[in-house]
Write the structure tokens for this entry.
Amino acid sequence: MLDPSITPHQHQSIALDLRGIRKSYGKVEALKGIDLKVRAGEFVTILGPSGSGKSSLLKIVAGFEMPDVGDVLVRGREVTHLPASARDIGMVFQNFALFPHLTVERNVAFPLEMRKVPRAEIARRVEDTLRLVSLSGYGSRYPRQLSGGQQQRVALARAVVFEPKLLLLDEPFSALDRKLREAMQIEVKELQNRLGLTTVFITHDQEEALIMSDQVAVMDEGVIQQFGAPDDIYHRPNNRQVAEFVGDSNLFEGALVREGGVATLHVDEALAIDLGVRDCGRDADARARVLIRPEAVRLAPAAREPRSLPATVESVIFLGPNTKYIVRTEQGHVFTSRTSTMGPASFAVGDQVDVVLAAESWRVLGEETAAPRGVL
């Protein structure tokens, strides 16, 4: 049944519409009123730590579980109480869930057979789909005869062969080694773009989410803390949960003071952070929490920079293209800095350095209780 509150154009542009989804397991409230709209053709990642509620949400979208409260609409059609088989949704499971006793060809053909597609059409579509995932000639093999990456391609082919309205990916790369995982990320994203598939992807890997997604929904404690483009999620996090989970963070809390239009965060008697001329969304003397990412924390040789913080290097972590430094100021404040390995300066443990912080690089975070729940 189509939702009469949405125009025909919106029915076509919104592929998945979640409204007020709540789910509890005994006394544990896993989902606390999820609202989320996914546009047709988008790749949306639901990102969060273990226990955040992301897997429960995916199961409700897929039809493996029912919400206690709320509605699930796919292309404007309410499917909340329909079984998984009637939702026209493709899914790739974490363990691939291939039938071990069926060949690759039969595995991919299975959803078409369930839909009683004519044999000749099944053969054509299976062949086309295997070609699409670079498995032409593998149709007669069994899953046990394939590598992990090949098994994943079979699972992906089975999920898209019937041209679903929505594709769900449940941490499909977690069992793969890093090199293969990165290769499959590119392949899946290219396939999604080529087919124009609306895709919802579940992961706890922040880097994976930022690389693959058009939009990211960061979940924590059963709530979508922030929904937006990867750039916004990383550079403009809404609150502490998002800032801490997505990437490394330097977080400080203190009293916000304005003098002559310039905002300053007084963390304690020894540290006052210059936030520059800006509207921080807080009253004067209000408490605030601010963030600066490690790549915006610049280290310089000691006593070279005015208005800098003298510090000592406590740890140096080589990360290939980048090096991460942990430094401690004379007053005991700890900063993380990340610099290019090809950069002009490098430091060792015990070196005296200046910590240089640009006012425009700070982000004033919102309150945790005011986090949005993921509407577009």
The chain has a mean pLDDT of 89. DSSP finds nine helices and 20 strands in the chain. The longest helix spans residues 178-195. The longest strand covers residues 14-25.
